[in-house]
Model the fold of this input.
Amino acid sequence: AFTGQAQIQGATVSDELNGGASINGTVGSVGWHASGLIRNTGDYRIPGPAVAPPAQEPDEEHEDLGFLPNSALETRTGSLGASWVGSAGYIGAAVTGYGTKYGVPGHEHGDEEPAAPEEEDEHGVQIDLDQTRFDVEGAWNFGGSLVRAAKLRAGYADYNHQELEGDEVGTRFDNNEFEGRLEATHAPLGPVTGTLGAQYGNREVQAMGEEAFLPDTKTGALALFLYEEVAVSAFKFGVGARWEGNDHDVIDGRSRSSDGFSGSLGINWSASESVTLTAAAARSTKLPTAEELYSDGPHAATRLYEVGVPDLGNEIGPSLDAALIVTAGPVTGQLAGYVNSFDDSILIMPTDSSVGGFLVAEYEQEDARFYGFEASLTVSILHRPGNHLALTGFSDYVRAEATQTGEPLPFIPPLRWGGGALWEVDRWRAAVDVRRTEEQTRVATFETPTPGYTFLNASVSYAFFTGNLVHELTLRGTNLTDQEARNHVSLLKDIAPLPGRDIRLTYRLLF
Done:
């Protein structure tokens, strides 16, 4: 695998680089930014066969090839932007290009018999994807008696991907989308501060070819929203409201309009400078998307034959959540819990039917309930100048089921937990962690269970300086015990396991 990245920016050094360069520069009140990335990889290595036993046919044997066929990818991206910053506000613009070409493991077409190895194209089925995006953002502080400040964001994306069968284009998918958002902060009304705004979006989707799963559709969306806060001593109360509507127009003459209201109420108590308690109640409305309404065909990226339902209603979800957050001291972290109850939840449910080698999955609505927790913890063992040692831990879990029957919902992640240690001394930094993902046996009808797995990860890095240059050398290992692992929420989990042992050496130069 080859990875290279370079970045030039007029703000601060980016910490996003996996290996590359950064140049900082500012001309007066003008900031500029440029970045680029090239990544080429071969098929990644896996322990064991690609196809999981539950997905194998009776008496079917799969050879352990040592790698996942047709998992190679090529990625290239670049961005160029500039912004002007004044005493009362700023305005900036950027253009970003992104392109990637990757294989679709295990992909077959139609009801045809698989080709003999000497007849197959060496690359199999691939997706060739390109996107160009333009973004503008600006904000200004007016200091007026009514409107104190305003912020505007707008973006336009031209996206397309082609499904390649060898050198032939089988299916093409185009998505052109514009979105704009305007926010205005009003002057305080006594103890009340807040923001109101509007958001507009327009999307055009076009699919062409044998596996076009969605008819040509135009979607327009408008939303109005308001958020207000009131601070009383150590308490802060917040209330939010949002109305949104959309219109779908299909090339065959069908049309659909929907609208809905969402609202929330929250409280934040600062028990001390480092301890905060929060709680919130909300009622959210999700409007059906074009894919959920009008899909009817094979979707290469998901390996599903998706079937939409044109008369889907709104998904309405009352929810409750609470959290304890500690930000300072020898022990820091967060513990949060939530309960979400959905009326007419929109779900995609797998069936026992297949069309042309694709498993049929149908959109449907059902009352559903989600509840779970998230936790993270950092314990500082040693904290001295130039010498820091800390232990970390985390866990998260979600349980989802149909409200009336108690049956599990599909594609729900299992319990995860783990912990590790971080040691920083002078210019050295070392970390080790163990991450356990439990098995998922609470599965929906026609969904396969997923075994659990444990990842052992470790890294060590060293940084040094020469003049104005910063050098960083990092040795990182992931899945060091070479565990076979499958991501339960991935639609390709039964044919595409996660990578095996990965060890890489990275050199970063910042200047």
